[in-house]
Amino acid sequence: MSTQAETFEFQAESRKLLQLMVHAIYSNKDTFLRELVSNASDALDKVRLESFRDKDLEVDTSDPHILIEADKEHRTLTVRDNGIGMSRDEVQDLIGTIAKSGTAELLQQLKETQDGAAAQELIGQFGLGFYASFMVADRVTLLTRRAGESTGTRWDSTGEGTYTIETVEEAPQGTAVTLHLKAEDQEDSLLDYTDSTTITGIIKRYSDFISWPIRMEVEHTDSEGETTRQIETINSMKALWARPKEEVAEEEYREFYKHVSHDWNDPLETIHLRAEGTIEYQALLFIPSVAPFDLFTRDHKRGVQLYVKRVFIMDDCEELLPEYLRFVKGVVDAQDLSLNVSREILQQDRQIQMMRKRLVKKVLSTVKDMMSQDPERYAKFWDQFGQAVKEGLLNDVDNREQILEIASFESTHDAENKTTLREYIERMKEGQDSIYYITGGSRSKVENSPHIEAFRDKGMEVLLLTDPVDEMWVESVPEFDGKRFQSIAKGQVDLDEQDEDGKDNERQQEFADVLSWMSTKLAEDVKEVRLSSRLSTSPACVVGDNNDMGPTLEKMYRAMGHEVPPVKRILEVNPDHPLVSGMRDSYDKNGESQELKETAELVHGMALLAEGGELREPAQFTSLLANRLAQTL
């Protein structure tokens, strides 16, 4: 018996995406089976864990397995598991809707790429494996019952725009996905997916490492021509991480990565290790080649699974790696942990903390080796994940030096390639004791900042820090290798040659009166007006005191809802600029005037705009500027 089926429509974007997937993107259609088997394996992991946590759960875990059923007569292929199953609401949320978030972004990226392989890589980032079934099927039916529930749910769709959902009274525990297969078409890479040899070959290639038995009725013909059929396990079920490295082929590593990460790309780096001694564990970790689209969202899940003695414990174990390494995927299998663990227990577990320390050091040392042995691959890694790794400079004090060693930054030394801090130090000028940097929203903005003029003229390299996290870590990291970090937009910067004839004092006296007057007139906006040694062509710039919060960081805190008191900054003026020397001459000759007061306001406004800042009174500034320009005509 079943209730009346309800029909729903895919969202417009979902329909477009589904059509793109089915008709325009995939070249290797065999991967649909890998995705279905991977989903079934996840369901078996979850039901075992759920039965362990909830002793009252009515669930059968006596023979967890995946069964593949092929029906040549009706041209159907069913992938069945007796795992956790899904409730009706879960079917609606997880299966009835494509790409719960990010669909619009994915469509835009797909439109921008003409490369089929690149498009296929994009699909993997959005977790749409189930829908790969429509590559080989005209219709897909899903029958599922969640463990502990009495009724099941049937989902059915042709992928053309609508799907139906109904509640069924009788359904076995777990999930069965039945594909009503398209006709075989070798030219379109559509194989006969009812053929046991074809299915076995795909399983061996993609899913041999699955830790649950994958069964299928296999046909055998003996020497006398008699044919028999029997159910066989067609995967080896040997945990890849438990095998010696020399026995594992690169292809096996790649396919295992795709299984645990649901990513369609090959990994950038594989880390296979076995720790013995006081704490024993095995780990197989991967660094992806492409950052997931949600790497910087709150919903992003970390990718390391925890096993204890080959028993799956949890999917995204946050205690095994810190948040700044959240992009690392893989498996950690501990030998001595209790199976009765929770996230709260793991947070306090000494063995987990020791494993975490070793895993972090291993990942960072792997990146360091990549940097020295394969700079091109390292550059790809840093472009994809550098912004996340730098978050560790804020909250992982123990590994701060190692993170600084593997970090690279844009600088004024090279417009194309980034530089490491070690390379920066090797190029430092004689007598230079600081690593100079400037922060901002983009390279073009900070590279053209007035603050950088004198450094460029004297050939002194400046790091150009343009990631949002850079504003945070430079405030808390004092030095690297004995060289302190110094913002060129903060504090006093003395780049002049030694003043042997007292010209600096003489100049200070020449401008003392006009600087004092400007400090008074601009007191609402600045804490001081002084002469600058960092300017060569611009008339003025605004800088902060050494311990002041920078304007970008101030904006970030306000955007997050924090109340931050406004910070007054210092206006530095260039005594060699005609505008500044002209203001001095005018004040010395005529004293205060309305025109001079307006000029001072314009100089301050121009300094703010030059660094990409915001004017407190933009309308007033444009009015003053317009009036002054009119007087020149």
UniProtKB/TrEMBL annotation:
Protein family membership: Belongs to the heat shock protein 90 family.
Residues annotated as domain Histidine kinase/HSP90-like ATPase: 28-185
Predominant cellular place of this UniProt entry's protein: cytoplasm
HAMAP family in alphabetical order: HSP90 (MF_00505)
Coiled-coil boundaries: none
Annotated organism of origin: Actinopolyspora alba
Record bears the keyword DNA-binding: no
Function in brief: Molecular chaperone. Has ATPase activity.
Entries under InterPro entries matching the protein: HATPase_C_sf (IPR036890), HATPase_dom (IPR003594), HSP90_C (IPR037196), Hsp90_fam (IPR001404), Hsp90_N (IPR020575), Ribosomal_Su5_D2-typ_SF (IPR020568)
One GO MF term attached to the UniProt entry: ATP-dependent protein folding chaperone
Compartment(s) of residence: Cytoplasm
Pfam families given in the database record: HATPase_c_3, HSP90
Annotated Gene Ontology cellular component terms: cytoplasm
Binding residues annotated for ATP, in chain numbering: 35, 39, 81, 86, 100-102, 125-130, 175, 343
Protein name: Chaperone protein HtpG
Region of interest called A, as start-end residue ranges on this chain: 1-343
Entry keyword ATP-binding: yes
UniProt superkingdom: Bacteria
CDD domains named among the record's database cross-references: HATPase_Hsp90-like (cd16927)
Oligomer and partners: Homodimer.
